[in-house]
Amino acid sequence: MENEIEFLGNNIEKALNSRGIAAKYKSTGTSENIQFKVKKFQIRNHRTSAFSPYYTFSMLSGDLVYGDMKRRITAYFKNGKVPVWAFREVEEPCYNVPVSLMVKEISTKINRHVFGLQSSDEKVEKLAHEINETNEKYNYLKVLELGYTNNPSAIPHLVELINHPDSMMRATAVSSLGMLQAEDQLDLLKTFYADHENTQKFMALKSIGDLESDASKAFFDSVINSDDYNDEMIKEVVDLYL
Question: What separation in angstroms does the CA of 221 have from each of 63, 168, 199, 205, 224?
């Protein structure tokens, strides 16, 4: 676990530096430092047969502590690939990409809670235009980039993408609404959670958890006290926030 934490810390440092934040990772800190105390860092694998997709469920949960502030911040991503010729085909989509996204999400949330820096409206509009005008295989990564901007002007674009025909685009749009703490979209997220299954449902639940409002916490309590909590993956997401 120690090597994984070193990897995580060094890459969060790089991600923050790329935003113009002069952060430096250290394995130990004092009360004067920004601390991220990792509670869970896991990649769980799942496959049912040689002909089914190889799935990874990548998850990270920890407490951000800075002065008197303490916030639970998390990252969760599910991705899959059917290896056709060799098992190494799953390395990029199932390991490299999800870990990279976890680092970006955690650094985004550290930025939001501590530094409050955000991308320009021009960058948001450029990303939205690229998403709408292209149909690339990994276009969903640009949808996540809208969440990483920390700019609320991205929210209307994400709301529109919730109706996108591609399920991965819908799931990442929902996830990004949580990253932007779009509290006024809670009812939309709750409806999306109720109406969808699998990755989209998990991402809606994660997004609701990211809102950090009394209403979102009450919804989590209702999920814990429902049959949904018996589902392994629903429980997995909920427990990241407990």
Answer: 20, 27, 21, 12, 5
pLDDT on residue 71: 95
Judge if 1-117 and 118-242 fold alike in CATH terms: no
> What pLDDT is recorded for position 30?
67
User: What is the pLDDT averaged over residues 193-214?
Assistant: 96
Please check the confidence at residue 2 and state whether its pLDDT lies above 60.
no
Distance CA 56, CA 26 (A): 29
181 Rama class: left (phi>0) / alpha (psi -120 to 50) / beta: left
Running DSSP on this structure, what letter comes out for residue 27?
S
Q: Which residues pair with 71 in a beta bridge?
A: 64
- Please give the CATH number for the structural domain made up of 118-242: 1.25.10.10
Q: Which fold has domain 1-117?
A: Double Stranded RNA Binding Domain (3.30.160)
For residue 50 the two structure tokens come to 């040689």
User: Could you state, in order of their start, the residue ranges of all structural domains in the chain?
Assistant: 1-117, 118-242
Per-residue pLDDT of 26-59, as tens digits, reads: 987 666 789 999 999 999 998 888 788 899 999 9
Distance of alpha carbon 80 from alpha carbon 169, whole angstroms: 15
- Is the dihedral angle over the CA atoms 34, 3, 141, 60 positive or is it negative? negative
Owner of token pair 């639940």: 205
Q: What's the whole-model pTM score? A: 0.93
Share of the chain above pLDDT 70, in %: 98
What's the rounded Cα separation, in Å, for the pair 157 and 180? 12
Q: Which two tokens stand for residue 228?
A: 């949904």
